[in-house]
Every structure is written in C-alpha cells, then in structure tokens.
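FAQ: What does the model actually see?

It sees only this:
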Amino acid sequence: MPIRLDSFPPSSVPLPELIEVIPPVVPAPARMIIPGSKSITNRALLLAALARGTVVLHGALWSEDTEVMVDCLRRLGFEIRVETEPDEPANRRMQVTGQGGRIPRSGTPDAPLELHVGNAGTAARFLAAFVCLGQGSYRLSGVPRMHERPQAALLGALRQIGYRVDAPLDRLPAVIHGTGPRAGRAFTSVEESSQFASALLLSAGAGGWEVGVNGANADELPYVEMTRRLVEVFPSAGGELQIEPDASSGSYFWAAGALLGQTVTIPSWPDSGWQVDAGFPRYLRLPEEVSRERDLGDSIMTAIVMAPLAQHPVRFTELGRLRVQECERVMALRTGLSRCGVRVEEAGDTLTVFPGVKGGGEIETYNDHRVAMSFSTLGLKVPGMRIQNPSCVRKTFPNFFQKLAAPAPAGLGAGIRDVASGRLLSAPDLLPA
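And it is asked to produce this:
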C-alpha cells in the first residue's frame, strides 16, 4: 500500500537564493515523465468535494497550488486522503469524500471561516463561488500579490445571483456569505481571467445557477472549455479519474530538445483536447506571430524565451492576461531577455523578439514559477544563466530542477550550481524545502 505523505520530504539543503544553469556537455536521448496538470487537479478536487460519494484522483499534481486547495477543502470539513504514487514524485493519489453539494463547516459574519489561498488563482476563484453553497461566512485571503489580482467580474457575478460579498475594492481579502443553492443567472467577463467563468461553471450544477460568459470568442476559450468538458465526464456519483500530465510543464522539455538538438520523448502526452498547451510541439519551429488568445496558454512564455534562437523576428500578441497573473509577466519576460542581450520591443500587449542572444543573465523571477522555468530552459543552451529565487517553482513543478539535472534518460543532464558557494547541487539538494 502507498504510504500517506502530505508534503515532499525536506531537501538536505534548501535551494540557494541564486543558481546557475550549466548546459549539458553531451545531450543524450531523454524520456521525461511530467507531473499532473494543476488546472485539472484543482478543478477535479472541487468537483470531487461536490460529488455524491468517494472520488479517487490518480496522477494528481502535488505542488504549492494544489496543497492550498487541499488545505482549504479540509478546513471546510472535507475528508481528503493523499498518498504517494510510484511513477512520479510530484504526483499523488487523492481520495475525496464528496458531500453532494453540502459544505460541512462555516463561520459567522462576526467570525468568518478563514481560507488562505496563497497566490493560487484557481483556488481563489473556484473557492469564492464554491463557498456560496455553504451556510455561513467565509473569508478568502492570500499573499499580497493575490490581493492585487483581478476578482471584480467574479464577485459581481455572485452578487447578481443574490449572494452577499463584502469586498470594498472587489479584490481579496473578501468575506463571502453563503446561503446555499439558489436559482439565479449570472454573467461574467473573461477579459481579465477565464477562471471567473470556470469558477461559476464548476459549482453551477449544485447551486442551480445559469451561467453566461461575456468576452471575445467566449465559447471557444480553452480553459473554459476544459471546465465544461470535465464537468460532463466527472464521476459525480463517485468513482475514479485519471489526471493528465501538465502540458505547460511539458513545454520546457519539448523546448529543451529543440534547443539542444536532443531527442526528448514525453510518454502519455495529453491528447484529450482539454489543454491548449498540448499543441506546443507545433511551435518548436516558431512562426512569425504567436497569439496568447488563439494559439497557446501559459506555454507562450516558453516560446518567448526560445525566440532569440529563431532565424527571424517573432511577434507575440494579445499578452494582456500575462500582466495580471503571478507577476507582471510581460515586463518580466522583456526585462529578463534584455539582460541576456536580446533585442525586445514592447508595443501595447505585443512583444517582438529579435534573433540573437549575447549570453546568460541574472534573472529576477518576481516569485513567478514560470519565469524561473522558462529562463532555466533557455539556460540549457545559453551559458551563464542565473536564476534568482529558484524555489518558486514549487508552485506547480516542485521537482523541475531535479529533472533538469538528472542524467538521461530520466533527465537532461544539466548542471545546477549554487552561485554563492560554487558547488554543484546533487539531486537531493534540488527539491525546494
């Protein structure tokens, strides 16, 4: 039987504040196992809590964002067992005892039940709608950056249905007063985040809500479509669900293979059509223009850092949503590439990246996991890439640096050096504490 394990074992030495990625000397064929999708895991956890019976999730991601969701659901009174899985250290088998739409615990208006969501946008948005099904008051808060991220469209939609939401600035922290299911209709905009629509759709069946989505090509938004399709196939009366590998996390290894001329295979690559980033391999030879809205999701950041090694300038368009995520990602990408001697032009929500890179630079990650992982991937080809605060990868991919450093075929064979001491870090050293 798998052992119960609710967190990664602590590393022998915490990740240093600054590391250097050393390109592999002789790239060898690699077969990379990718952890489960964060987007699907957190959606599935919420649907499992709503189920009428026990649901077992296989291949679920265990990272900072999913730990936050599990912790919040447990605080709400749900029983969740988390066990290791043998094939991938960052995956878990999760057994959730659903309550059929009932939320066991709540607080009062004077003492709301506290739910801390960290900087997990999925937890913040999905739980805001979910707790409306409870009978009592709930206070959602997070890290300072989470308090800056947009919430107004979702909170407004909940008020349309008839729920009371106390959030003077229409951001977190917010106190939401649940009164259980109530028939109602709500429209929400997806201009700032498709998570607003997904939050409503996940709880709509239990709440009796009719949900309308405003925004350009709203019916075709990939993350909203993921939510709709997951709701359709979810074992709502109890059962089992296999979580797909995370396509955006896989993008770093497809990119590494292309940059290094290395054969990289990823078994069980998602083919359900749920994840827009599953199409990333089509962009290993970059076209002249790539859209964040039409072509790629989070993996567009991987494509942007690959672009200096293309043979032509590449325009990345419709990047507005990147500005309101874990950090101001457009600025972070432009700044990081400029530190590597890359010519980058910003115009509105478009970045144009020109061919040519002088060398690795010191990259400020702004505590953003995807900034850290994208520039580390470029560092597999470009010597001298130094990454500040590498532990931020724990948000979605805790063993990312272990996979970079492991010898082939299980890894890419890169070196990871502690800049302060000059010491090469071994596999046990590369897991965030």
